[in-house]
Amino acid sequence: MAEKSDKIDNKTMQQWVREARLVSADWREESWRDCEMTDGAQWSDEDTVKAQNAGIDPITINRTFPTINLILGTHLTNKLSIIAKGRTHKDQEISQVMSEGIQYVLDQYNGEFLIARAFMGALVPGVDFLAVLPNADPRYEKIKVAYRNWKEMYWDPYASPWIESSGCRYVFHQPWIDVEDLKAIYPEFKKDIEEFYKESVGQVYETGPNTDEADYVEEYLTSGTGMRWADGHRKRVRPVEMWYTQYEEGLFAVFSDGRVYEIRPDTSVQEQYEIVKSAQEVVKTIVRKMKVAVFVGDVELDRRDTPFQHDMFPFVPFVGYTDRFNFPYGVPRQIRGQNIEVNKRRSMALALISSRRVTVEEDVVDSQEQLQALHDEANKLDGFMVVKSGGMAGQKIKIEEQTALAQAQISLMSQSENEIQQISGANAESMGYESNAVSGRAIGLRQTQGATITAPLFANLRRSLKCLGTQIVSSIQSLWDREKVLRVTDRLTGAERFVVLNEITRKPDGSVLKVNNVTQGRFDVIISEAPLTDTVREQNLNLILEWVKRVPPETVPHLLSLAFEMSNLPNKDQLLAKLKPMMGLDPNEEDMSPEELKQKAVQALQQQQQAAEASAQFNQQMAQLTMQEKQLQLEKLKAEIQKILSDVAGKPLGDELEHKKLGLQIAKEGHKAKVAMIETEIAKMKAKAAENKINLEAIKTGAELAKIARGANEEGARTTGDNAGAGSGPGQ
Fold first, then answer.
1. CA dihedral 438, 74, 525, 598 (to 10 degrees)
2. Is the dihedral of CA 380, 386, 388, 393 positive or negative?
3. pTM value > 0.85
4. Disulfide-capable partner of 425 in 241, 453, 459, 659 (CB 3.0 to 4.6 Å)?
């Protein structure tokens, strides 16, 4: 199926190791110096000796450490979320579940701490790494996120530290590991590993001073272009885990929703047939494929294809800045000189303040010993000097304080401190210190200025998190192929709930449907625009409370529940459990899957439709009863009028008759008015009844349409379930 290019031999990979270590030696030495500056080891041995010989006590004022902590603290208090977005409508429905899966994987391996640690590496030495790897230990989550120290990571020097597989030839991890542990991992090579260790140990002890300062923490390491493979102090070796790309011809099935599935040589014939039948097109082309080899010296321990569906390096770089040679560096590099100057000038100023210059004539004392004693006494806080008679009157001895000179050193030191703030963005306003900015606007502008200076660092952080999320998504689609229950913590409210992935359900017609199927679909990874901070949480809470004042009454319980969840009230979970039934909410709603929530919403809509239909029917019946009552009143009035008319007929004329006729006319007019009024009311009731009938018909029509739509959705879902086996594949 796929024709492989020539196998890369062990000698070539060893040459890559020497090449990467040699080319990176200089920038690694500088990065190690940046780490020393952050740790407070800011005086070189040479400068320390010079200062002490000049009578200056070397003092360290570490301005680098709080600068790094400010930038790192900004990240820790403004956490960014990794979110998956679906490419199609169907993918969008499962994207929330995929986002929760990403968070679950990170939670299993303390992801927030690992990200902060890697970002710290980007800030100080300039680069650090996380790795997304499969975990063979069944006791833990099978997708592993691990930290990889920058001192153990090397890559193609002709590529960028972002190590994109399209432009980087190789990346390797070279940690120290005990010989016994390595033999346990590769038991079939026990003898070869032991022989290699015996041959290699002690070979590099006499090579001279180290030049790879980045590996200074590991004693007795590299010298020049040589490379140490073994350590006799603890019986360790340093194997290489080499990841590299190689062009190969492959066959790929492309689906209409953007998914791409590779038809591998080990794919069964039946599966190949189903894939080709369901695919939009099948493409045969040459692509880069990822390989991995593990070796120690000439002993090759393993060589295989990447275990992932993607062909990216499984390492996620966190990069601070890059120089003109495309080598990484961090924040201390730009402020190193200023911080060293601050130390030297502070030490010089203190030395000048506490010292005096003594000038004497030769005849003031009798010997060199007395001159030295005079000098020592002059520089004591409570010095006491005795000279020959007449020595003071003629100004034969002169003592000058050095305070004026110290002031100049302090002034220059202040300029260096200001330059550190300007270059790093860690100004007084950003760090919460008192400054000369008195208005709130001025303080805000300076804080914004500091954030603008550090913006490239956080842009690079977002890039790293996007790469991390992309690799986790691909790993989830490759390795989470069975039913899995996740306990997910909501990033906004802190509430916990359970989600079932790849759940197999049977519908009433007997067809099988896989709910929350994460093995299919294609997703884009984005980083949340609004970081989660206490201030943002408070603003969102106030916004929700404002909505409560304006929304319909039936929406208020849901908003109040969300407001409680976003708050930091103690025991809020227990409080919510008691309040939700009182507000008419389901306490178990948080534990429902998106499909269950959708079903619940459909049921609620059906109940609303049924209630509306019953209400309309009741109103119709009441209107009919009212109309019947009015009709009876009308008939009664007409009967009374007819009775009066019949009583008057045939009576003699006269005054009495005139009065009766007049009364009859008045009664007749009154009855006519009542009849007209009743007829008007009846007309209105008829119109309202007709309107109710129309509304009732609309409700019935809406219910029928909803029923038809649900049937179509179920039919589409059943079709998707039937084609799941044929169309499954990674979304890469």
1. -80
2. positive
3. no
4. 453
Residue 382: exposure state from Cβ atoms within 10 A (0-12, 13-18, ≥19): exposed
Q: 713: Cβ–Cβ under 8 A, 6 or more apart, which residues?
A: none
Helix 403-424 vs helix 64-77: angle between axes, to the nearest 10 degrees? 30
User: CA-to-CA distance for 199 and 296, rounded, in angstroms?
Assistant: 12
Rounded to whole angstroms, the Cα distance separating 593 from 487 reads: 11
CA distance 345 to 365: 35
pLDDT at 240 (0 to 100): 95
Residues 535, 541, 546, 550: is their CA dihedral positive or negative?
positive
What is the rounded distance in angstroms from the CA atom of residue 474 to the CA atom of residue 84? 11
Nearest CA to 222 among 205, 210, 238?
210
Q: What stretches of 490-589 adopt beta strand conformation (E)?
A: 496-501, 503-506, 512-515, 523-527
**Nearest-angstrom CA–CA distance, 423 and 70:** 14
Residue 153: which of 9, 324, 320, 328 has the closest Cα? 328
Burial class (CB in 10 A: 0-12, 13-18, 19+), 335: buried
Which residues make Cβ contacts (< 8 Å) with residue 30, sequence separation at least 6?
329, 333
Residue 89: per-residue pLDDT:
72
514 near 721, Cβ under 8 Å?
yes
| Among the listed residues 229, 178, 215, the one whose alpha carbon sits nearest the alpha carbon of residue 32 | 215
pLDDT at 24: 92
**Residue pointed to by tokens 């062009």:** 247
CA distance 342 to 414: 8
- Predicted confidence at residue 29, as pLDDT, reads 92
Cα–Cα dist 262/289, whole Å: 12
3-class DSSP state of 111: helix
How far apart CA 261 and CA 610 sit, in angstroms, is: 47
Do the beta carbons of residue 203 and residue 195 sit within 8 Å?
A: no
Residues of the chain with pLDDT under 70: 1-6, 202-227, 257, 354-366, 378-452, 488-495, 529-541, 547, 554, 558-562, 564-580, 582-602, 604, 644-676, 678-679, 681-682, 685-686, 688-732
User: Do residues 490 and 496 touch, judged by C-beta distance below 8 A?
Assistant: yes
| H or E, element range at 639 | helix 594-648
Residue showing tokens 């914004």:
448
Sign of CA dihedral 131, 134, 140, 141: positive
Calculate the CA dihedral of residues 62, 66, 67, 72 and round it to 10 degrees: 140
Whole-angstrom distance, CA of residue 88 vs CA of residue 524: 10
- The 10s digit of each residue's pLDDT in 487-534 is 766 655 556 777 788 888 877 777 777 778 888 778 889 887 655 555
Burial 255-294 (b: 16+ CB within 10 A, else e): bebebbbbbeeeeeeebbebbeebbeeeeeeeeebbbbbb
The contacts of residue 92 (CB under 8 Å, 6+ apart) are: 85, 86
Residues 6+ apart with CB under 8 A from 468: 82, 115, 130, 132, 145, 316
**What is residue 437's predicted lDDT score, i.e. its pLDDT?**
47
Q: Is 170 helix (H, G, I), strand (E, B) or coil?
A: strand
End-to-end, the C-alpha distance of the chain in Å comes to 20
Query: What does DSSP say about strands 496-501 and 143-148: parallel, antiparallel, or unpaired?
Result: unpaired
Q: Are 182 and 296 in contact (CB under 8 A)?
A: yes
**How far is CA 12 from each of CA 8, 9, 242, rounded to the nearest angstrom?**
7, 6, 11
Residue 528 per-residue DSSP state: -
